[in-house]
Amino acid sequence: MNLEVQRLRAYNFFYFSILSMFISFLPVYLSFRGIAPGELGLLVGIGSFIGILSQPFWGMLSDKAKTLKRIILITVGCSVVIGFLLFTSSQFLVLLFLVAAMYFFLMPTDPLTESLNYRVAENHQISFGSIRTYGAIGFATSSLVIGWMVDLWGMESLAWLFVGYGVLTFGFCLFVPDAPASSKKLSFQELKQFFFYPRTLRFFLLVLLVSTPHRTNDSFLGVYVQSLGGTTGEVGQAWFLAAVSEVVFFAISTWVLRRWSEMRLIMIAAALYTLRYVLCAIAPSPDWVVYLQISQGITFVIFYTASIQYLYRIIPEEWKATGQTVLAVLFFGISGIVGSIAGGWVFQQIGGDALYWAMACFSFAAFLYSLLLRAKLTDQTECSHQ
Description:
Layout: H1 2-32, H2 37-65, H3 69-86, H4 92-124, H5 128-153, H6 158-173, H7 188-196, H8 198-227, H9 232-259, H10 262-281, H11 286-292, H12 296-314, H13 320-349, H14 352-385
Helix pairs in contact: 1-4, 1-5, 1-6, 1-8, 1-9, 2-4, 2-13, 3-4, 3-6, 4-5, 4-13, 5-9, 8-9, 8-11, 8-13, 8-14, 9-11, 9-12, 10-12, 10-14, 12-13, 13-14
């Protein structure tokens, strides 16, 4: 058991390292190639649209094949090759194709990995956070190390760094345990009922409201830091601080989830997201923005883990991987399209500070909506006890 879990932790470390390179440094690389913020938003937005199609595809494929590991090996292997080509290309149309391909293969690996982590943790009766923490450590260390290396060796070194981390990711994935498959027969009728259940629809709308400004920050954090006079190393430092805070909160996530309800935690995260973006909007220097990313743990981790637990509580057992990918479609797909395309336009036409003010308003709307949902859930609970 210990060896299986350790291998899965190592895989998480390296997978989230290459995910860090893609999410954190793709906007910086595109800017280096002369891509304007509006075009950058278009590239990421189109990629996010591809993700909407690819994530349910891979999730349903894994459910039908009763395996997560073999699907992850396919997506990771293809991502390593495509990532090398992406970080050695400069023409807009080529970049567009390769970014779309990365969203088709690399981004769906995230929900598949989260589902693998969750199921293996359940099987071995350990906490989800005890595995996922190593992914956060990988994200943190690679953000800092890659930023420094790019400053030292140049932007062209990203391709070889991606391949190095990618090969290690694939290698460790070969030896991770597969998720225990559900013995229940797939039921499309149950899935249909799940999607059209009002409680589910309301929850997905809340996820979309919270995740849209989060994904906008993912796309434009590096560009915003550089627009304030920051370096590539400082961009890496910003992502490092964000990821370190994730490590801390993933480590205590199980304790937090036991003390408070999922909806209350989502509400708190939405309120803190609002404060975070307001402070970024008024930041007088890149240092402010860099150090504000330490709030990532209490915003993203609390929101994401609470959302996963809430989703797993209401979705049929045999569709958990599919449900995880639907959550990812909202978090990384639809919200990515809206946040990247609209965010790119706002950034280019009005400025980075205006973009962060808009993100703060969006998060505040999510906070108000979470208050409404929590009140509704409280009323339903009281009615059920009467």
